[in-house]
Amino acid sequence: MKLSFSSKNQPDVPPAPDVVLASQSIGRKMLLEKLGIRFRVAVTRIDEDKITDPNPQKQLQKRATAKMQEVVNNPRVYMVPEDRDVIVIAADSEAFISKKCFGKAKDRDDAKKMLKELMDKTHTFTTAVSIAHVAMGKVKKTWTKTAATRVTMRKLTTNELESYVNRYDFTRFAACYALNETPWDLVTKIDGSYTNVIGLPFEILTPILRQLKIIE
């Protein structure tokens, strides 16, 4: 006996939204890969240094939002499909001691100065995440949230500091370090989210991805 199945009885399951990561950060890419998500990277042309605010957290939020909006508002430039749902994820991170912020170093001297200020102290590593759900070329919903983690760094010797700035591309990392690439013994204590310090806090990201049916 030959069995036949009617497609009318099968519910239409909408395809999962495309995911676009508006960042060239290796750490953020690694974290999305760990979630098993298929995504594409879009490197924006935003000049972060021109986006400022007296409030450090608001400054991070403005920068992350600007990256997200750059991709959303220029779909053809960033090859974002306009005929299906898309999720755009952007983020920005910095470290803080009191009101002083530590972003990416400009050169070796700047990196050494920054690390000397962070060594043997506890700083707050903060990441702002801005996410947009775009359907058929129109924004359905946006989220902008911030996570903070307390990080303690050990004191490096003069030789260790020289070796560090010679070996690692400090210009790619906020506060000149990255947990996924730089020496593990540089950081002695983390109080809070580990994924936040890498640059994409799961406590913000995963509930939104579950809500959008991208992950279970």
Question: How would you summarize the topology of this molecule?
Answer:
Blueprint lengths: L17 E4 L4 H9 L5 E2 L14 H18 L12 E12 L2 E3 L5 H11 L3 E14 L2 E16 L4 H10 L19 E5 L2 H5 L3 H10 L5
Parallel strand pairs: 1-2, 1-3
Antiparallel strand pairs: 3-4, 3-5, 5-6, 6-7
Short description:
By secondary structure, this protein is of the alpha/beta class. Helices cover 29% and strands 26% of the residues.
Structural notes for this entry:
There is one protein chain. This protein has one domain: Maf protein. Strands 1, 2, 3, 4, 5, 6 and 7 form a seven-stranded mixed β-sheet that branches. With 216 residues, the protein is of the alpha/beta class. The chain has helices spanning 26-34, 56-73, 108-118, 158-167, 194-198, 202-211; strands spanning 18-21, 40-41, 86-97, 100-102, 122-135, 138-153, 187-191. Mean pLDDT is 91; it is low at 1-8.
* Count of helix runs: 6
Decide which structural class fits the backbone.
alpha/beta
Report the principal-axis shape. Answer: elongated
CATH architecture tag: Alpha-Beta Complex
What series of H and E elements makes up the topology? EHEHEEHEEHEHH
Text of the CATH class: Alpha Beta
- Fraction of residues in H or I helices: 25-40%
The total number of structural domains is 1
Kindly report how far apart the N and C termini lie: 38 Å
Largest sheet: 7 strands, mixed
Q: Provide the residue-averaged pLDDT.
A: 91
Which residues sit in consecutive blocks of at least 5 with pLDDT less than 50? 1-8
Number of strands: 7
Computed over alpha carbons, the radius of gyration is 20 Å
